[in-house]
Amino acid sequence: MAEHEPPLSCDCFVSLPPGSQDDHVIFGKNSDRPRDEVQEVLYYPATSHPSGTMLECTYVQIPQAEHTHAVVLSRPSWLWGAEMGANDKGVCIGNEAVWTREAIDPGEALLGMDLVRLGLERADTAWGAVSVITGLLEQHGQGGPCREDPAPFSYHNSFLLVDRSEAWVLETAGKLWVAQKVTEGVKNISNALTIGTDISAEHPELRSVAQAQGWWSGEGEFCFNEVFKSENPPARMELAKKRYSGGTQLLQQHDGSVTAEVMMSILRDKPSGICMDSGGFRTTGSMVSILPRDPSLPCIHFLTATPDPSRSVFKPFIFSESVTPVSRVISPQYGPDDPVRKQPRFQSQVDRRHDLYKAHEGALQTMETNPDAGNALTETLRMLEGQCLTDISALLSGEIPADEELGDLFFDCVDTELKFYQ
């Protein structure tokens, strides 16, 4: 891969009953980004905001909502939004880069990653998040540099939005969009348009714009991914299609038996390319969520906060009234001196590695230089993850009670992982 070739490799997955082994919705996503980009995990509590407050997103300001939900986010540490995350209402969202016939606005607007966070902060259902994101697209548009680099690189976005009862695929082209509702079975998206004729909702001007541009005759069935597919797609889009197909096959192999462990194994699959490690890009963060259909049970979100899920630990996070902040997965802050804040942007680089990232980085070096020690460490980390999964299973089955200590779970797992690295 060329040094500046765009990362075209994210994948999102969902399994809804009867695709899942239990009466749970299972969400999964890998975030594939520039190789050295640091991904941090952040928790923000629910907050009320004075009317008229403005919100500073990555590049632009927009009006703030009067109330925002509590969220946990896995995000590239230089930006405001998130690659993936969840809120305290049981909504999960992940996004993907896509290219279409619609021109990409060269100006700065909302990043797709900003839209992920805004959807989580402002919606209490997956469909509500679709409405939030499409409304913001209409008002503010999407665009701006999508990586921490002076070389221009922008894209449009597709999204997988999931709650306890259903999922939505949302695919965009500029301010235009289509959405598809998924209520059962398994579904995945990658860096290609997947919605054809099975459209559940759409921008009111979608078809008239397609006709006016000469992309669609107006006759016969309207197929979004055929009408709007890019005439000059990036070179690696064919690989994205293969990865989408491979991800679909992996999901279908487990259709009816998908669990959090199965979803983790899919995100760790290197032969398919879903777990990416190629040239200047790799999987820099991963997330798996269990969303029980039973609203009396808590949603469980597993996040790595470190690269390469095949060599990382999925650590559980549960929303509770008292969540312990985990400073050791939060990157240093540079305020107005941050290269993303200074004009022109990205003219210098800063060290964004947090404590867990640095410790994990050292562990990866050990794995590569001393395979025996590396295998022993990997086995120890898998035991930690396995114990967490066992405890979560017992929690969801009612064998152990939910208590106020759930807010410490992610903190405790990070602390234990760091001790193993010492």
TrEMBL record:
Gene3D superfamilies listed in its UniProt record: Penicillin V Acylase, Chain A
GO molecular function list: cysteine-type exopeptidase activity; dipeptidase activity
GO biological process: proteolysis
Protein origin, superkingdom: Eukaryota
Signal peptide range: none
InterPro entries (UniProt xref): Peptidase_C69 (IPR005322)
The family this protein is said to belong to: Belongs to the peptidase C69 family. Secernin subfamily.
Protein name: Secernin-2
Taxonomic classification: Eukaryota, Metazoa, Chordata, Craniata, Vertebrata
